[in-house]
Amino acid sequence: MLKLARIFLKVVELGSFSKAAKVLNMAPSSVTRAIDNLEHELNSELFKRSTRQLLLTDKGHFFLEGASNLVSDCDSLLMSMAESSKEPEGNLRISVFESFGRLIVCPIIPDFLKKYPKITIEVELENKVLDLSAENIDLAIRIGTPKDSSLKFRNIIPNHTFVCASPDYLSTTATIEQPEDLSLHNCLVLNQERQRTYWHFKKSRRNVKALVSGNLKSKGGTPLLEAALCGLGVAQLSNWIVSDYVKSGLLVVCLRDWEPLLNEQSSGSVYGVYKQGIYKNPNIRLFLDYLVEKTHNKLLQRTW
């Protein structure tokens, strides 16, 4: 029953026998046969099947909650048993946006693997949101505010941002005393595929948005950082990107009295997201615990 329940949950998650077969590394016919056996054992039809879609029956919806609890409880028990008696091992596939991956995640991986030598890590540096199930991703690290309610997430760090420029750039251009002054500057911006780009600021109860433009756009922060260091213009970047350069004097924080925001509400957070319930990978928790510990320790020393 437990094995069949796992297959059932994967079919529900992906909405397709063939997609579930691919992720489970099974033949489609084996998945179909497993569901047939489960329905026979339960004496209930779980799916309404057609060539175009796969829908749960009323009995299927009823079984879904129980199956989820069954598998979750079993996985939690197995994980607890394994953690107490077995060295962590297995694969962990991580997708992380390029700048955070290059600057924060990649540097800690060697020490993590020395601590857990039987774990194998695959890293994808991507500035796009991937489908965790379709791409077989165990853990995705994203920035902003979690939106997909079907996934679990854990906050890693708040994503405070700063408006920065090099001393050379600031010495040859107009002063930046108010957010509105940014209209006179070459602003290096994240490419959000909009006709106009605004930077948002907050001070006490006052909220301001400043229209900005410049000759460089990027979906990731690394090109903007490099351009700012070379004196090309002003950039709004996360604390975990710029703090070392600010402490060394290579970048200067502008508008210190204002709180820059990535959107009107906030800059969100950096968070790890992973699939719920079924097939829990204990290495996800191990890696997230390690990442949070190393990142927080690092950033606490970088505040200003």
TrEMBL record:
<keyword id="KW-0804">Transcription</keyword>
<dbReference type="GO" id="GO:0003677">
    <property type="term" value="F:DNA binding"/>
</dbReference>
<keyword id="KW-0805">Transcription regulation</keyword>
<protein>
    <submittedName>
        <fullName>DNA-binding transcriptional regulator, LysR family</fullName>
    </submittedName>
</protein>
<dbReference type="InterPro" id="IPR058163">
    <property type="entry name" value="LysR-type_TF_proteobact-type"/>
</dbReference>
<feature type="domain" description="HTH lysR-type">
    <location>
        <begin position="1"/>
        <end position="57"/>
    </location>
</feature>
<dbReference type="Pfam" id="PF00126">
    <property type="entry name" value="HTH_1"/>
</dbReference>
<dbReference type="InterPro" id="IPR036390">
    <property type="entry name" value="WH_DNA-bd_sf"/>
</dbReference>
<comment type="similarity">
    <text>Belongs to the LysR transcriptional regulatory family.</text>
</comment>
<keyword id="KW-0238">DNA-binding</keyword>
<dbReference type="InterPro" id="IPR005119">
    <property type="entry name" value="LysR_subst-bd"/>
</dbReference>
<dbReference type="Pfam" id="PF03466">
    <property type="entry name" value="LysR_substrate"/>
</dbReference>
<dbReference type="InterPro" id="IPR000847">
    <property type="entry name" value="LysR_HTH_N"/>
</dbReference>
<dbReference type="InterPro" id="IPR036388">
    <property type="entry name" value="WH-like_DNA-bd_sf"/>
</dbReference>
<dbReference type="GO" id="GO:0003700">
    <property type="term" value="F:DNA-binding transcription factor activity"/>
</dbReference>
